Amino acid sequence: MSISYNNLWKNMIDLGINKKQLAEMTGISPTTITNMAKNQFVHLETIYRISIELDLNIEDIVTFNYN
């Protein structure tokens, strides 16, 4: 199984938000944002905080690929 945050990056472009701003808005560390950019797993709490701050659904942030 793999994970992708491509939906998040697309939504951030639409909202005019960059990764630094995302970290500042959510209180998520830049290291965690970097891990997400590498499609690594992060805590569910991280995804939840992003969803609340950006008013997005989970599927607007992350997708799981079952191979």
UniProtKB/TrEMBL annotation:
GO terms for molecular function: DNA binding. It comes from the Bacteria. Pfam families: HTH_26. SUPFAM superfamilies: lambda repressor-like DNA-binding domains. Signal peptide: none annotated. Residues 15-61 form the HTH cro/C1-type domain. This is HTH cro/C1-type domain-containing protein. It comes from Falseniella ignava CCUG 37419.
